[in-house]
Specification:
ABC_transporter-like_CS; ABC_transporter_ATP-binding; binds adenosine-5'-triphosphate; ATP-binding cassette domain-containing protein; alpha/beta; 4-stranded antiparallel beta sheet; binds magnesium ion; single chain; 6-stranded mixed beta sheet
Length: about 325
């Protein structure tokens, strides 16, 4: 299946070297199972990138390769300007990683987990205490700081996990499913934290199963399927890739509706609502031609709305939801 061509940020943001993360042709297999079959990525510094894909698509594998936890079988990647194969120590010094599964040690307190991270980053003791207190406060964990982490709820543990990742003030952070299992309030808190990090200039690479999360946070989204990037772009660009988008014209006067129906034979009718749907990708060019055409025929709708498919539609289309949807992106 050819990859739908989207404008790449490489064109928009200049040379690859300005990227926080760039990768070309990354490959990884386990035995004869090909997990990544040539992945290209370009993530500008200070942006949020979301990697989507069904279970087993290779999201965690990609994070592990880019954070030098495992090596790729082929391809190249630079993280923070350092080659992952040649300069793994430099890569590690510039990143923070929150894995899919918690790195929190349950037997010691939240504060002790934080101080341990400060030691690992060779922070002087007083600096370690200062950073720990500040992050515990920021993640609303001060009250629980002296309790063993095993007593924390899932959401508290996840917040501690991310607080631990931030101890070394990384410029690039990898968050592998940061909000899986969190309730809606905790999820929104996490989104707020991620937005604040980005405001501070941090680059965020996140994986998620939640399309709404990608929609809310990410500047660019890539959908991983069958070892390759099936599509990437902004949420809006991805939504325009699949059919289902339309312009809806609603009328209040039945006479005006009837004359529009006779002019617009290809439109889908909704006689009850006095509304017509015209298929459209929602692009400026298509909208302009629809509006011009309405003007030329003298049709005046009382309400005109543009509907684009949501990211769920895109996800199903790109990752084998239905044959019809698959066909649409071919
Ligand atoms: N150490 C390993 N040995 C063998 N196979 C592995 C190993 N790690 C991952 N895999 C396989 O690689 C594939 C991709 O796994 P990965 O964990 O990257 O997927 P994922 O997209 O993160 O999935 P999920 O959404 O479930 O977290 C899976 O088929 C998995 O079974
Ligand atoms: Mg995973």
């Amino acid at each position: 299946m050819p990859t739908p061509v989207m404008p790449t940020s490489r064109q928009a943001d200049g040379p690859v070297s300005s990227a926080a993360v760039s990768a070309i042709g990354l490959r990884k297999s386990y035995g004869d199972k090909v997990v990544l079959d040539g992945i290209d990525l370009h993530i500008p510094a200070g942006s949020v990138f979301a990697l989507l894909g069904p279970n087993g698509a290779g999201k965690t594998t990609t994070v592990q390769i880019l954070s030098t936890l495992i090596t790729a079988d082929g391809g190249q990647a630079q993280v923070s300007g350092h080659d992952i194969a040649a300069e793994p120590q430099d890569v590690r010094a510039s990143i923070g990683v929150t894995g899919q599964f918690s790195a929190v040690d349950g037997l010691i307190t939240g504060e002790e987990n934080m101080l341990l991270m400060a030691d690992l980053h060779h922070l002087p003791r007083s600096e370690g205490r200062r950073v720990t207190a500040e992050l515990l406060e920021r993640f609303d964990l001060t009250d629980a700081a002296k309790k063993p982490a095993i007593t924390y709820s899932g959401g508290m543990k996840r917040r501690l996990d991310i607080a631990m990742t931030l101890v070394g003030s990384p410029r690039i952070i990898f968050l592998d499913e940061p909000t899986t299992g969190l309730d809606p309030r905790s999820r929104h808190t996490m989104w707020q934290i991620i937005r604040e990090l980005v405001t501070g200039g941090v680059t965020v690479f996140l994986t998620t199963q939640y399309l709404e999360e990608a929609d809310q946070l990410a500047d660019r989204i890539a959908v991983l399927n069958n070892g390759t990037i099936a599509a990437q772009g902004t949420a809006e660009e991805l939504k325009r890739l699949i059919p289902g988008g339309h312009v809806r014209l609603r009328f209040t006067d039945p006479g005006a509706y009837q004359s529009a129906v006779s002019e617009l034979r290809e439109a889908t009718r909704d006689d009850e609502a006095l509304a017509l749907q015209i298929p459209s990708d929602g692009s400026q060019r298509e909208l302009r031609s629809i509006l011009d055409w309405l003007d030329s025929t003298g049709i005046e709708a009382d309400e005109l709305t543009v509907h684009t498919p949501d990211l769920d539609d895109v996800f199903f289309a790109l990752t084998g939801g239905t044959d019809k949807a698959q066909e649409a992106v071919r």
